[in-house]
Description:
Blueprint: H1 11-20, H2 33-44, E1 53-57, E2 62-66, E3 71-75, H3 78-92, H4 100-113, H5 145-158, H6 160-171, H7 180-197, H8 199-205, H9 213-241, H10 253-272, H11 275-299
Antiparallel strand pairs: 1-2, 2-3
Helix pairs in contact: 1-9, 1-10, 2-10, 2-11, 3-5, 3-8, 4-5, 5-6, 5-7, 5-9, 7-8, 7-9, 8-10, 9-10, 9-11
Amino acid sequence: PTHPPHKHTTSRLRTRQCFRLGRRHRLSVPQSQETRRAAMEVNGCGLGGMAVFAAGLTFVGILTCWSRRQRRLICLTPMASLALTRLDLEAKTRYDRENPDHESLLQVLWVLLCPGQRRKGRDTTEWGAIGFQGKDPATDFRGMGLLGLRCLLHFAQHHQQVAQTLLARTQAEGPSAYPFAIAGINLSQLALRLLKERPTVANGLFLGEGEDVICTFCELFVHLWNDFDHAWADFVRVFLDEGNPPELAVMQFSTFLQDYWDVCTNSWDVLATSESGEVLFDTFRRDARIAHRANIESAR
């Protein structure tokens, strides 16, 4: 049953009311007209449909899923299974501050997000400027390992203008501000969970052996972050319109992140098997190839 909105409704209900306002899906990353139509279909798929719950992943990549009405078996393709294995290994690779390669990636992230600014040292509260929680960013990567760092770096390097815009908005003092790096790490975890629990999405995204799995995954991550950022701004607007104190908005962030997952995943189930989904995934793979070539050139 639909509950009438009022000032003291729970955060979860307020979040769902926000999504029901019919917000438009918008991408800050420049895309073709076909891709924009495909992206908007993510929001247009609605909140209904199957609520699919992953029951298990075997070594051959088989997921057993249940819907509300029937049980069905969905198999990961060999390419998708290999891709998820690769992503899992990267996520389980612990960030090591004694590893010069890891430290180099972190330093590049700082330079890209804070050009021209020099830190006082390695362990400093200045990391908070880009959304880390403490003096040592390594502690924030414990949940997603090296994959979380690679996602942030990909965003800052290959979508620099969008990343700078988001960073400026999250740094601004206001009810819609949130920590940039921490949010990115959480959304990288959400993106990986989406692929694991929605095999149709993984199958549609990973098609060929020549793909750069990390770059392709990062393009999905960037897309989700853009969508999430707009959804969060819409939620905060509704939250304030209900008469809630602005300083309480940031306290809803964790709950909103979970509600965002609940709302968007059913739409991805439908999109993944549609023609518009194919267009969107083609765009991810194309942009990933461009990013991969740029990474090779910069490494020379």
